[in-house]
Amino acid sequence: MNFMIENNRIYYKDEHGKLVAEVTFPAESVHVANIDHTFVDDSLRGQGIAGKLMQAAVEKLRADGKKVHPTCSYAVTWFQKHPEHADLLV
């Protein structure tokens, strides 16, 4: 699965162009992004897609020198389960 990466979101569209998975992380400030939304279509649930989206988002934000303020409930839980990325949290 190849995710599309933009400045403030990472997403995946199916072969018909339908958005089926997404994580968004708009800027709160110059150095902080807010992971505020994750979405995975029912057809893809249970395959670890949301976790892969989060990993991709964290890698992008780290590479961009950003800190993270997660407000999406899934993102909050993901960071609790992945303390190796706690250095990114504000």
UniProtKB/TrEMBL annotation:
Q: Where is the N-acetyltransferase domain?
A: 2-90
The membrane spanning regions, by residue number, are none
Q: Which Gene3D superfamilies match?
A: 3.40.630.30
Look up the domain of life of the source: Bacteria
Which PROSITE patterns did the record assign? Answer: GNAT_YJDJ (PS51729)
Q: A Pfam family for this UniProt protein?
A: Acetyltransf_CG
**Matching SUPFAM superfamilies, A to Z?**
Acyl-CoA N-acyltransferases (Nat) (SSF55729)
Please give the PANTHER family that the UniProt record associates with this protein. Answer: BSR4717 PROTEIN (PTHR31435:SF10), PROTEIN NATD1 (PTHR31435)
Name the UniProt record assigns to this protein: N-acetyltransferase domain-containing protein
The major lineage groups are: Bacteria, Bacillati, Bacillota, Clostridia, Eubacteriales
